[in-house]
Amino acid sequence: MLKPRSDGGGRRRAAAFVRATGAPVAAATSAQARRIRDVDALRGFALLGILLVNAQTMAGPYEGQGASGTVEERIAAWLVTALVSSKFYLLFAFLFGYSFTLQARSAERESAAFAGRMLRRLVCLWCLGLAHAVLLFPGDILMTYAVLGLVLFAMRGVAPRTAARAAVVLVVCLGVLLLGKGMLTLGTTSPGAGAAADTATAVADYRGAPASVVHANLRQWRDLLAGDLLYMPHILAAFLVGLAAGKRRVLAEFDRYRGLARRLVVYGLPTGLVGGAVTAMCRNGPLDARWSGVGAAVGVFAAPVLAAAYGCGLLLLLRTRHGRRAAEALAAAGRVALTNYLTQSLVMALVFTGYGLALYGRVGLVPVLAGCLVLCAGQLALSAWLVRRFRYGPLEWVLRTVTRGRGT
């Protein structure tokens, strides 16, 4: 186990980082409570969207159905692409960047070495992600977060404005790259071209013994790796926006930013919805598969706009009289978000793979999405029970223990 530096260097760097945020170490109690509730409520909200997307991969090869699916399934897949895909993992990434500043302030309050804490935290996240990808879900995001967390740590000293500008550059470069690739594909591919996905092997493996499930996960993980690397700039951009927002204490002092939040909802929601609809038209029809690259490029630009509108809209709603109860329920789920995220994969693995019922590819997309809503409702209730009795969820406790190091 790595030990914090004893010469105070890490503490001095943490103090310098906190001073760079422009915020005092000891914030007002009410503001700190509000901040924590908002961060956790946004995490709880993001859990539902992540579940709806991940379920499509874990429950069956729906991506390859195309026109062969029922009308209801095609509509459901179209709506998930337009409204959900790529939006909620960006919201989670934003919160990761924001929480980075909270970790720095916590280290400063406790006179602890921030570098040692953060390195242990990222290593623990990477190990949990590795186990998750191999055993449960090859589309794991924790390992990507851990790797990019090192980049975020290296950039921790940048000014908020610089971080935001860097995020814009990353998004624009990725979007232009994908648009060029998509236009090239569109211009060089014949209409109707594109082989159907070979899903027989995946179906057999996921319905087979546990060893075959692990084998299928490893194979899919290898196939997904190129896409994960390609979209790393998208996630890093969200990290940097979260870092900038944390330095500005946007969620701690949200009332100061209500006007900006309303503008993001008013202008961002319709813009993001149009972009999401275009992405869905390219990926799920009526446009053919040649347009998928163009749709991916549009999604790179539209997803952050819609994610920001969702987040701001939720925070505004939670401040209404009827939104306070929802805020408490979402915040409870968000406090144990890591436990909930991995539990979602465990439940779906038990239902859809050879670990349990082996229903992979046997259930339509609409019932799968309905089941996701039931699972999310159950997690909201269980999370509320858990946080009333324990300070941390089980995996949150593990991550916290590793972060702080033995004997701290």
UniProtKB/TrEMBL annotation:
Ranges that cross the membrane: 44-63, 75-98, 118-135, 141-159, 166-184, 224-243, 264-281, 293-318, 338-358, 364-387
Pfam (any one): DUF418
Keyword Membrane: yes
Keywords for the protein's UniProt record, in alphabetical order: Membrane, Transmembrane, Transmembrane helix
Ranges for domain DUF418: 245-405
Domain of life: Bacteria
Signal peptide start-end: none
PANTHER family from the UniProt entry: INNER MEMBRANE PROTEIN
Protein name (Swiss-Prot/TrEMBL): DUF418 domain-containing protein
Organism of derivation: Streptomyces reniochalinae
Highest classification ranks of the organism: Bacteria, Bacillati, Actinomycetota, Actinomycetes, Kitasatosporales
